[in-house]
């Protein structure tokens, strides 16, 4: 496990298979927002690290229902009692919480297009899961992928480019690719991912290039 700064005001806590993001002075000065909570087995170490590095967590935003993104939630809630924001339509997430016997309800159940405190816009890209959500920090043109996209080096390719999550991990792989068009309606010049390397140079242009080259069985959203 390691802690490092990614861009000004945003740190990452890196575990073996996934990372989480810490947004400092968000939504207000002196406050801490945690994006996702890693696996359950990471929960204790996550809490210890958050206490040591930041002292507090005021809000948790969960991006979707995979265990590696919400598994440590109970540990964080018990330690810090933060405000919790979760996608309203992500049945996988609510089912996992119920299966784990966790009586946890969101303070904010967000939907596509909602703007969370701190001017964070939700952009949902269904396909990886039912309501996989990217988070756009509109004041800074920074997009946090929420597993809508991975760094290309996760798939053994050169870093600096983007790919959708592997088909193995997607509920509907075609939708996971087609719905990436939802991201192109927004401006961002930095893209932070949970798997692989972040993209700091023209991520939107690279995503656009990727989608142009895909074959969609004669269907392309731009032609509708």
- Protein structure class: alpha/beta
Which percent band covers the strand fraction?
15-25%
How many helix segments?
Answer: 6
Largest sheet: 7 strands, mixed
- State the total count of DSSP E strands: 14
Order of helices and strands: EEEEHEHHEHEEEEEEEHEH
Poorly predicted regions are none
Strands side by side in the biggest sheet: 1-2-3-4-5-6-7
The pLDDT mean sits at 93
User: Which of globular, elongated, flat, extended, rod-shaped describes the shape?
Assistant: globular
How many whole angstroms does the radius of gyration measure? 17 Å
Question: Gap between N and C termini, in Å?
Answer: 46 Å
Give the helix level as a range of percent.
10-25%
Protein name: MBL fold metallo-hydrolase
Keywords: Hydrolase, Metal-binding, Zinc
GO molecular function: hydrolase activity; metal ion binding
Cofactor: Zn(2+)
Quick synopsis:
With 224 residues, the chain is α/β, with parallel strands linked by helices.
Structure in words:
This protein is of the alpha/beta class. The protein is built from 6 helices and 14 strands. The strands form 3 sheets. It has a 7-stranded mixed sheet with strand order 1-2-3-4-5-6-7, with no helix packed on it. A 5-stranded mixed sheet has the order 8-9-10-11-14, with no helix packed on it. The N and C termini lie far apart (46 Å). The model has no long low-confidence stretch (mean pLDDT 93). GO terms for molecular function: hydrolase activity; metal ion binding. Keywords: Hydrolase, Metal-binding, Zinc.
């Amino acid at each position: 496990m390691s802690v490092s700064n990614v861009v000004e005001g945003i740190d990452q806590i890196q575990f073996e298979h996934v990372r989480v993001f810490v947004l400092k002075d968000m939504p207000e000065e002196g406050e801490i927002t945690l994006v996702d909570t890693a696996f359950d087995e990471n929960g204790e170490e996550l809490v210890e690290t958050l206490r040591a590095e930041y002292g507090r967590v005021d809000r948790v935003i969960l991006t979707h229902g995979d265990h590696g993104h919400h598994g440590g939630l109970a540990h964080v809630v018990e330690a810090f009692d933060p405000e919790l924001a979760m996608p309203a339509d992500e049945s996988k997430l609510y089912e996992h919480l119920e299966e784990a016997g966790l009586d946890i309800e969101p303070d904010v159940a967000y939907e596509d297009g909602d703007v969370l405190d701190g001017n964070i816009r939700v952009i949902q890209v269904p396909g990886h899961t039912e309501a996989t959500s990217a988070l756009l920090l509109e004041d800074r043109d920074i997009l946090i992928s929420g597993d809508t996209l991975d760094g290309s080096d996760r798939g053994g390719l050169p870093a600096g480019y983007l790919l959708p999550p592997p088909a193995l991990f997607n509920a509907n792989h075609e939708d996971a690719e087609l719905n990436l068009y939802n991201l192109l309606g927004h401006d961002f010049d930095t893209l932070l991912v949970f798997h692989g390397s972040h993209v700091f140079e023209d991520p939107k242009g690279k995503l656009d290039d990727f989608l142009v080259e895909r074959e969609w069985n004669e269907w392309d959203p731009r032609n509708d």
